[in-house]
Structures are given as structure tokens and as C-alpha cells.
Specification:
The complex is a heterodimer of chains A (297) and B (177).
Chain A (H helix, E strand, L loop, with lengths): L4 H36 L1 H40 L1 H36 L8 E11 L6 E4 L12 E3 L4 E8 L4 E5 L6 E6 L5 E5 L7 E3 L12 E4 L11 E8 L4 E5 L8 E6 L8 H15 L1
Antiparallel strand pairs in A: 1-2, 1-12, 2-5, 3-4, 3-12, 4-5, 6-7, 6-9, 7-8, 8-11, 9-10, 10-11
Chain B lengths: L1 H14 L1 H14 L7 H4 L3 H12 L6 H15 L5 H16 L8 H27 L5 H29 L10
Helix pairs in contact in B: 2-4, 2-5, 4-6, 4-8, 5-6, 6-7, 7-8
The chains are: A alpha+beta (297), B mainly alpha (177).
Chain lengths: 297, 177
């Protein structure tokens, strides 16, 4: 058998390009397939995501440090520029807060006395884990943060995440040394809240925009802007009373919420373990359903 | 004998550079920088690198590598799995088939080509994500993200060009496909 190289090339080249074309179409189909899998089996994809993130976490943690030094530097420059205004604002705020301290002390003593009188059951005290945000995306497609604490540090799925200002989101996936937070602005986020002064219940839903909206308000509810919103504790996923935000705007179409937490400025978050366990554990549920299905077979 | 072996090892290691560089860009895209308004419009840096290598050395960033980068970006950034695999693959496919229009032209053409391709990619990601969530997502932040990535393109492209010149100068251009 004798092939001249030119003959071989003439046959091989189109074959190669054909194979490549098939591979290309195959991979495109596969990516659509993966999207479908993501729709059908959320648990599987979340698990995969958590494990891959866990592997990348040390690198991300290392990279996020210089990034945070840079942003600290920028923040310092900004702070220096507004030093005078900031000082005046803080002095004014301090005077106001001093008055509040007296009120709070008086109310606290009164509250303790009344609770003793009634033998009231105290709300559970949370355990906190503090972690650094090492990665994150925000915007129209997804709004999640990754932190450098995981199941080994006592972080569990469904736990609420707080910043110094208020509610941040909840843990949606946990691996050994990292966890993912679903921000309150994400399109998948649903948080039962109440308006603090009127005790009106509502559900705060994210829409991948800057401000989440309130839905399922009772008919005829009267809502005014800059009313405080706190978690309601309904559904047993979040403890009641966590500060969430203020009513930013009210119109015929929607009620928008301005969150207390500024997602752009937080570097550390606290994950609260209130021991509230109303979160449906999809994995065990699935095992149960799967188990009973296989038994039937 | 051993020189040949070492040369081969050296060659193999070099060939992973485009992939590793693009992977680093994946990580940089998701690092939080606490500048107000930045995170929403943090550009998809790996797209620039994929565009570059698809034009100048598609053999060094093969199809499967683009696929893996897409998976990693999707999993790490938290977007629906498959979304950026699709975007990366379509950008790669279109650029590889049209590379002869850009190769050898001025930097401006190379930049403008990215502008067109990345706008298509932005529209694609917005459309596919809207279908996935079954709700019309806000296009504004995706568009700003596109503008930022268009503005930042020369920096990433410059690094890519330097890498290419430093490591792959001797090799001839891959034949047009």
C-alpha cells in the first residue's frame, strides 16, 4: 500500500473538519442539555457548584485580599474627601442616638420586668459565624456571593446571612470550606417580611434588580414610604425581627424596598444559626421519595 | 533524546498558557471589588481572551477547552449552568469561522470585531437567561457590562498579544478553517 501524502491529506482534512463540526454541534446541544438538567435537578447542580467552588475557594480567597486592599484604598480617599461633612453628620447622629439609649434602657428594664412577670419564653439566641466574601456576582442574571466558611465552620443550608446593617440573604449551598449566599435581590429570593409599624405581612421577592419588591400584600393595606421592614419569621425559615430595609417607593404597580445592606460595601458577613429548622431539606426529601419509589418497584 | 523529550514537555506546558490565562480571567471576573456599582457591571473578562485566541491561535484554545471554561464560569459565578458555555461556544464558533476577516488587520478592526461579537454575546446571554427564568430580565446592566468590557478590551487584548508574542512567536499561524 502506498499513499502519497497529498492523497492522505485530501481525505483526512475534510474528515477532520466534519468531526470538529459534529463536536461543535454536540457541545452546543450538551450545554442546552445542562440547562435542562439545571431546571429539573436543582439539588444536583447546587451540589456540583458547591464542590467546584470549594476547590477554587483558596485561590479566590487569596485573590480577593489584594482586591479588597485596593477597594479599601479607594474608600479611604473617598472618606478623606468628605471628612468634614461626615463628621458633622456623625455628631448630629450621636446626639440623637444618646437620646435613644435612654429610651432603650428604660424599655429594656420594663421589658425584662414584664417578661419575668409573665414567664415568657425567650427567643433563641443565635450563634454567629463571621466570614469573608471571596467571590460574587450581581446583576441581571444572578446575584450570589461566595464566603470562605462552610459546613466545617457550622454553616448550614438555609441560614440567614447578616451584615452590620441588616439582612443580606440566605445560604443556598454549602460545602466543606465555602458556602454560597443567595442575595435578597436575586430572582429566586423569597423572604417573608412584615412592615414594622403596621405589622402588615408581605413577601419580599427579588427580580435581579437593585430593589426587591413586596408582593402578596393584604388588600387595602396602607403603605407609606420609608417604613421599616423586618423579617416576619413566617414559614420558619428565618427568625423574626431581622432588619431588612425601608419602603423606597409605593405606586400602583409595585412596592419597592431599599435594603439596609449596601452589597457594594460589605467585606465580611455574619451567618446566624438560630436553630430554626423549618427549611425543607430537598436532599432528604428526594431520598425519601426516591426510596419509596424504588420500594414500589 | 532527552532534549527532544524536554522540548516536547516544554511545548505541552506552553500550550496550556491560553487556557490558564483565560481561567485566571474567569476568577478575576468574580472577585468582589467594593466599588459602588462595579459588581453589576463587572465584565465577562474570559470572553475577551476567547475572542483573541479564536482569532490568532484557535488550535491552542480548542473547542473542549472553551467548553470547560464555560462550565467553570457558570459554576463559579452562580449563573444557570449552561448559559455561558453556550455564549462562549457561540462566540468561539463565529470568530473561528470569520477569523480571516480580522487576522492581519489593524488593532482597530480587531477591537471593533470584539465590539460586534460581544454585543451579540450580551444579547444572547440576556435572551437565554430570560427564557431560563421565564421572566423578562433587565437588559440595562447587561448592556453596561458590555460597554465596560468594550472599554477594557485593549488592556486584556494587550496582555493576550504579549503572551502570544512571548511564547508562540515561532509557530506559523494555524491554517484558516
Amino acid at each position: 500500500m502506498e499513499f502519497r501524502p497529498s492523497t492522505l491529506l485530501r481525505v483526512a482534512a475534510p474528515l477532520r473538519s466534519l468531526a470538529q463540526r459534529f463536536m461543535y454541534i454536540g457541545l452546543i446541544v450538551l450545554s442546552f442539555g445542562l440547562m435542562l438538567v439545571g431546571k429539573m435537578d436543582v439539588v444536583l447542580i447546587d451540589h456540583l457548584r458547591a464542590e467546584v467552588t470549594n476547590v477554587a475557594a483558596p485561590v479566590l480567597a487569596a485573590l480577593s485580599r489584594p482586591a479588597s486592599s485596593i477597594s479599601n484604598g479607594l474608600e479611604n480617599i473617598r472618606a478623606l474627601m468628605y471628612l468634614r461633612e461626615e463628621n458633622a453628620r456623625l455628631l448630629e447622629e450621636n446626639t440623637k442616638l444618646k437620646q435613644w439609649v435612654y429610651v432603650a434602657r428604660r424599655l429594656q428594664t420594663e421589658n425584662t420586668a414584664l417578661q419575668n412577670l409573665l414567664h415568657s419564653v425567650a427567643d433563641p439566641k443565635p450563634k454567629f459565624v463571621t466570614a469573608r466574601i471571596i467571590a460574587g456576582t450581581m446583576g441581571s442574571i444572578s446575584n450570589t456571593f461566595v464566603i470562605n466558611a462552610g459546613s466545617e465552620n457550622g454553616v448550614g443550608k438555609g441560614q440567614p446571612v447578616l451584615s452590620d446593617k441588616g439582612f443580606v440573604g440566605r445560604i443556598i449551598a454549602v460545602s466543606k470550606n465555602s458556602a454560597r449566599i443567595l442575595l435578597a435581590t436575586d430572582i429566586n429570593s423569597r423572604i417573608p417580611v412584615i412592615l414594622e409599624s403596621t405589622r402588615t405581612r408581605a413577601l419580599m421577592v427579588g427580580g435581579n434588580t437593585e430593589r426587591p419588591r413586596l408582593i402578596h400584600l393584604p388588600p387595602g393595606a396602607h403603605i407609606t414610604s420609608s417604613e421599616r421592614i423586618i423579617t416576619s419569621g413566617h414559614g420558619g425559615v428565618f427568625p423574626p425581627g431581622l432588619p431588612v430595609g425601608l419602603v423606597a417607593s409605593v405606586n400602583d404597580v409595585s412596592v419597592e424596598v431599599q435594603l439596609f445592606t449596601d452589597y457594594h460595601l460589605i467585606e465580611f458577613v455574619r451567618i446566624a444559626d438560630f436553630g430554626v429548622n423549618g427549611f425543607v431539606d430537598l436532599l432528604s426529601l428526594k431520598n425519601k421519595v426516591g426510596g419509596s419509589a424504588s420500594k414500589e418497584k | 533524546m532527552s532534549t527532544i523529550v524536554w522540548q516536547k514537555v516544554d511545548q505541552k506546558v506552553k500550550e496550556t498558557i491560553p487556557f490558564i490565562f483565560t481561567f485566571i480571567l474567569v476568577l478575576i471576573s468574580i472577585i468582589p471589588i467594593r466599588v459602588p456599582g462595579y459588581t453589576e457591571i463587572a465584565p465577562v473578562f474570559p470572553l475577551i481572551s476567547i475572542y483573541h485566541w479564536a482569532i490568532y491561535r484557535p488550535t491552542l484554545l480548542p473547542l473542549w477547552a472553551v467548553f470547560i471554561l464555560g462550565i467553570l464560569y457558570d459554576l463559579l459565578s452562580g449563573v444557570p449552568l449552561g448559559l455561558y458555555i453556550l455564549v462562549f461556544l457561540s462566540v468561539y464558533g463565529i470568530v473561528v469561522s470569520q477569523r480571516r476577516f480580522i487576522i492581519g488587520k489593524s488593532f482597530f478592526v480587531y477591537w471593533l470585531g470584539y465590539g460586534i461579537i460581544a454585543l451579540g454575546a450580551a444579547l444572547e446571554s440576556w435572551f437565554v437567561a430570560s427564557v431560563w427564568y421565564a421572566s423578562l430580565l433587565n437588559f440595562q446592566s447587561i448592556f453596561f457590562q458590555y460597554l465596560i468590557s468594550f472599554g477594557i478590551f485593549p488592556i486584556v487584548a494587550w496582555v493576550s498579544l504579549r503572551l502570544q508574542q512571548a511564547f508562540f512567536r515561532q509557530e506559523p499561524d494555524a491554517p484558516g478553517q
